[in-house]
Amino acid sequence: MSATNEEERLIRVALSLMAEPGDPKLCELAAELGPEQLYRRLADPATDEPRAVDVATRLSTSDPGRALEQAQRRGIRFVMPGDTEWPSGVEDLAHAGVLSDRGGVPLGLWARGPVPLHELGVSAAVVGARSATSYGTTSAARIAADLARAGAAVVSGAAFGIDEAGHRGALSVGGITVAVLACGVDRVYPAAHRQLLNHLADHGAVISEAAPGWAPMRVRFLARNRIIAALARGTLVVEAATRSGALNTARWATQLNRPTMAVPGSVTSASSEGCHRLIRDGGACLVTGADDVLELISDSGRLPPQPEPEPSRPRDRLSLRERQVLDAVPAARTARAESIARTAGIGLSEVVHLLGRLQEQGFVDGLDGRWCLSRWARRVP
Amino acid sequence: MSATNEEERLIRVALSLMAEPGDPKLCELAAELGPEQLYRRLADPATDEPRAVDVATRLSTSDPGRALEQAQRRGIRFVMPGDTEWPSGVEDLAHAGVLSDRGGVPLGLWARGPVPLHELGVSAAVVGARSATSYGTTSAARIAADLARAGAAVVSGAAFGIDEAGHRGALSVGGITVAVLACGVDRVYPAAHRQLLNHLADHGAVISEAAPGWAPMRVRFLARNRIIAALARGTLVVEAATRSGALNTARWATQLNRPTMAVPGSVTSASSEGCHRLIRDGGACLVTGADDVLELISDSGRLPPQPEPEPSRPRDRLSLRERQVLDAVPAARTARAESIARTAGIGLSEVVHLLGRLQEQGFVDGLDGRWCLSRWARRVP
Predict the structure, then answer these.
(1) Are residues A38 and A148 in the same domain?
(2) Would you give the DSSP letter of residue A127?
(3) Where would I find the H helices in chain B?
(4) Which residue of B has its CA nearest to A239?
(5) A370 with A335: CB under 8 angstroms?
(6) Last residue of one domain, picked from the residues B301, B325, B345
(7) How many domains does chain B have?
(8) How far is CA A303 from CA A87, A232, A297, B91, B234, in A?
(9) Per residue in B92-133, pLDDT tens?
């Protein structure tokens, strides 16, 4: 017997109240069994599920209905699969594997703010170092403003540095910007960003996989990064040292097969090292502005433009004599070697030899002693 | 009857005195006919070679023996294929095509300075904008010094900006550095670089494809760039605006299938735009220092990591029916449509239609009602 939508919501809230965000095993079980079966299995003390004993205790003391009601009174909603507002992009996490022991489709997302999560449209994650340079924050703000001006939503965390600059850039032009937190959406972290977070809750969206009240913890940042990457069409790293958490978000974007981008900077700046490494190792496309980002994340340019292959001119590889013979081979009909030799002004035996070489290389086709340009040769320069 | 080595030298000098550096047609004829035949053909007023009339006049007034002797008195040698000193890398220009109407293996190289051209070993071209920023010149000097310290030779032009900084960086640690000029090696261009060029002629090498006395002209810079790229194991662009000549050198490195590298910089600096574009479009690897360069140009990393081409399987684009027909076309002999239809188990009229489509796409060739796989289709997956 399957739960109704509201029963399922209570079950998902209950699971959200006990499950660590991005616990890959629980996310997988939820996908496999459905939340109701998972809930039953966890709540049954007779189960062999190792987490069950702890969980049963936590479940018996949690009251999902009350939690949901309390959240709603504070302007916080619980968005889950099947809701109109459910952002379909996060479903891709089902196939994006596990990084740092976090992964999977979230059981639901807690959200504040007027922007519906399914209406982010073309959106870019703008992430990077907390200890950014002024070059980094200026670049982040400029690119975010240009993205917002073009109608793209910005997605980021709520940290100092690049995250903050990205939000402020988007807000400066009245754009849509979304903060994804590692703690509950009712909490303020860092404390200095109270005003920024309140502004986002009034004009944009503040989202978390972690239940209201939950504290920001290291593992929750790692889980949070995958939500940022999954909500956005592509992820841009503006500045990152070599061990920056933003690189984890970039890896999620790559796992999700979404465009991963990085802004270059001075080779003497430690804050650009992570970006340079990403670009050098093929983990990100180099971008210098919003135009590059939009090209990569827009519908028309969904996939990153493949590097233009150097125009290969196969004829350039031929010797002069070979080319002389090739030029004498008719395109639209066949000819005997004798006729080609006459046209080329080259002796018959050499022409026969060269025709053989040209055939080897795919330029001509010979059938029953008659020769013509290959289809391929007719098309290549 | 073939010329002795010294006869060939005089012939090559004679050709060098009349040929524009990197004239692709003359380089090709020299490779095809050998310099002696080319010389005879050009010198014979009865030939049908269109250049011959001009050239015969020029040849009759040139005295290669005297030119060589004069050069030698001024410490200038003429290095040519077959000489121990001939740098084998330039031979790759035979297969590197033509850019901006310049190309081909040089007939010879004029050289000053104690460094033998075949002993450059692991070497890197360090090139870039004349109007470089201090970030660019500092980066170029630092990377060149680190390359030289690691035993790698630096190759560049002799312009202000990045070229100069590269030479100075290598010289600052007593490294080997080589200037390739667009004018004769006895000329000083730019004039302010008299001291630098004299220093290079005393401690490194100054090289040109252009004969002594020849003036620097635009087309000679384009020809010169290919020599820089061909002498070095890889080419590094440190700073370049979008229309910088250094990008031409980078393209030569790519044509030569050697590592092409670029240093990133601020996205607000016009002097880095060309570098960023190269990296973004896959035309260069991002490098931040000499270690990255050495990794790419050393023997262990001889070839640049090619951007993995999307495995192109032209057959995947075919419809199921087209593939059925294609599978029924014999590879090693021709067949009539009736026989192909029987093998494919598809009606004749549809087979004839599909064979036409397959021919359009280059998979099959039809001649006189008989069909076979095209050479190309036999080779593609």
Answers:
(1) no
(2) E
(3) 5-18, 24-33, 35-43, 52-61, 64-73, 134-149, 162-172, 194-203, 218-231, 246-255, 273-280, 290-297, 320-328, 337-344, 348-360, 375-379
(4) B266
(5) yes
(6) B301
(7) 3
(8) 20, 14, 7, 39, 30
(9) 999 999 999 999 999 999 999 999 999 998 999 999 999 999
Which positions in chain B touch A288 (Cβ < 8 Å)?
Answer: 267, 273, 276, 280
Q: Which of B219, B209, B221 minimizes the C-alpha distance to B184?
A: B209
Cα separation of A306 and B283, whole Å?
A: 11
DSSP state string for A193-254: GHHHHHHHHHHSEEEESSPTTPPP-HHHHHHHHHHHHHHSSEEEE----TT-THHHHHHHHH
For B251-265, b where at least 16 C-beta lie within 10 A, e where not — what string?
A: bbbbbbebbbbbbbb
The DSSP 8-state label assigned to residue A136 in this structure reads H
A376 contact residues in B (CB cutoff 8 A): 362, 374-376
Whether residues B59 and B119 share a domain: the answer is no
Contact B135/A at CB under 8 A: yes
- B178 touches A at CB < 8 Å: no
Give the span between the Cα atoms of B38 and B30, in whole angstroms: 6
Which residue among A264, A288, A375 sits closest to B374, beta carbon to beta carbon? A375
- Looking at the fold, whether A44 and A82 belong to one and the same domain comes out as no
Quick one: A218 and A349 in the same domain?
no
CA-wise closest residue to A146 among A276, A249, A238: A238
What are B14's two structure tokens?
């004679």
Given the DSSP bridges, would you call strands A102-103 and B77-79 parallel, antiparallel or unpaired?
Answer: unpaired
The stretches in chain A having pLDDT less than 50 are 1-2, 53, 301-312
A305 within a domain of the structure (yes/no): no
Sign of torsion over alpha carbons B41, B47, B51, B52: positive
- Report the CATH number that the domain containing residue B329 is assigned in CATH: 1.10.10.10
Q: Is A285 on the interface with B (CB under 8 A)?
A: yes
pTM to 2 decimal places:
0.74
Same domain, B207 and B318: no
Return the closest-CA partner of residue A233 out of A95, A91, A124: A124
| Cβ–Cβ under 8 Å, residues B300 and B322 | no
* Nearest Cα to Cα of residue B105 among B12, B24, B35: B24
Min distance A272 CA to chain B CA atoms (Å)? 10
Nearest to A310 among B255, B334, B374 (CB): B255
Q: How far is B334 from chain A (nearest CA, A)?
A: 8
Q: Is B87 part of any domain?
A: no
For residue B177, give the H/E element and its range. strand B177-181
* A14 in a structural domain: yes
Can you give the residue range of the structural domain that contains B256? 93-301
Task: Judge if A93 and A214 occupy the same domain.
Answer: yes
pLDDT tens for B119-170 read 998 999 999 999 999 999 999 999 999 999 999 999 999 999 999 999 999 9
Whether A306 maps to a domain, the answer reads: no
Stretch B205-222: mean pLDDT, rounded? 95
Map tokens 């479009």 to a residue.
B281
A352 and A269 within one domain = no
Question: How many angstroms separate the CA of residue B236 from the nearest CA in chain A?
Answer: 14
Is A83 in the same domain as A23? no
